[in-house]
Amino acid sequence: MRPSVTAMTTIASLGLGRMGAAMAARLLAAGHEVHVWDRTPDRAAPLVAAGARAAPSPAAAARGAGVVITMLTDAAAVEAVLSGPDGALAGLAPQACLVQMSTVGPDEVRDLARRRPGLVDAPVAGSVAEAAAGELIILAGGPDEAIDRAAPVLAALGTVRRCGGVGAGSALKLVLNTALVTAVAALADALAVADAAGVDRAAALDALAAGPLGGAVGRATATGASFPVALAAKDLALARRQLGPAAAPLAGATALALAQVPDQSADLAVLVTNTREGVARP
């Protein structure tokens, strides 16, 4: 049962990229007090205009917050934002809840939890549009009591799916992102065949949408989605690291395709666009 937000909570939102900013805006709209911080201060301006309070450092943002949320690029960024005299851990009260929502490896999350007991490991499935609408799937790992404390805040962002202990949410996120990225790459291959065989692209997409690649068609043709190629490559590298010596040839081929995209800031759907534009494929 999805909990309702019944009381205002002071929240620190650290990281104001497209996802982080959309989440902070959603939390403001739900009636929470939101302290925001980003290493690029100008990103806070629209949120401040909407009622957020800009903080000069992660530590300042965390002071007085009941929940601190990180939505950052990678594990190195999470470490930089949390650690040191100006890091969020320095300002985090003992009873506050740290919710790590960035996509990082399970091992990094477990290491962080050893330093901050009660951490909630909560990466998300969904993109900017889902964040803005409060329709994310939140893959929560950690102690039940910690998730219970964070749940009223997370309810404003979407549906909480409890995955198990710390690291379980991040592990499932890697599974989901591996499926997404390799499926979009498979769709690109299918469309390359369609182009080569003279099949109308719209007709091919319509037929593919009714088959096993239907989800990939929806993602590749969606508007408002934001999953930069560089981040997709980072997440796929995390998944491949988990594999160790196990074989995953599709993941390897997809990693090569991502590396060949000239604009690494483009959305993942560019893999499908590239089949039409003649970009070299592995």
Nutshell version of this structure?
This protein has helices at residues 18-29, 45-49, 58-62, 75-82, 88-91, 106-115, 128-133, 144-154, 168-197, 201-209, 214-220, 229-243, 249-259, 270-277, and strands at residues 10-14, 33-37, 53-54, 67-70, 97-100, 120-121, 124-125, 136-141, 158-164.
Number of domains: 2
Question: For this structure, what is the CATH homologous superfamily of the largest domain?
Answer: NAD(P)-binding Rossmann-like Domain
Number of helices: 14
Largest sheet, spatial ordering of strands: 3-2-1-4-5-6
- Please give the CATH class of the largest domain: Alpha Beta
Q: How many extended strands?
A: 9
Query: Which class best fits the helix and strand makeup?
Result: alpha/beta
Largest sheet: 6 strands, parallel
Q: From the alpha-carbon coordinates, what is the Rg to the nearest angstrom?
A: 20 Å
Return the CATH topology of the largest domain.
Rossmann fold
Task: Sketch the topology as an H/E string, one letter per element.
Answer: EHEHEHEHHEHEEHEHEHHHHHH
- The residue-averaged pLDDT reads 93
> Percent range for helical residues?
40-55%
The low-confidence runs, each spanning 5 or more residues with pLDDT under 50, are 1-6, 278-282
The shape, in one word, is: globular
**Which strand-content bin applies to the residues?**
5-15%
CATH architecture of the largest domain: 3-Layer(aba) Sandwich
* Gap between N and C termini: 46 Å
What does this protein look like?
The protein is globular and about 60 Å long. 47% of the residues are buried. By secondary structure, it is α/β, with parallel strands linked by helices. The chain starts with 9 loop residues before the first strand and ends in a 5-residue tail after the last helix. The protein folds into 2 domains: 156 residues, Rossmann fold (3-Layer(aba) Sandwich); 107 residues, Orthogonal Bundle (N-(1-d-carboxylethyl)-l-norvaline Dehydrogenase, domain 2), CATH 1.10.1040. The protein has 14 helices and 9 strands.
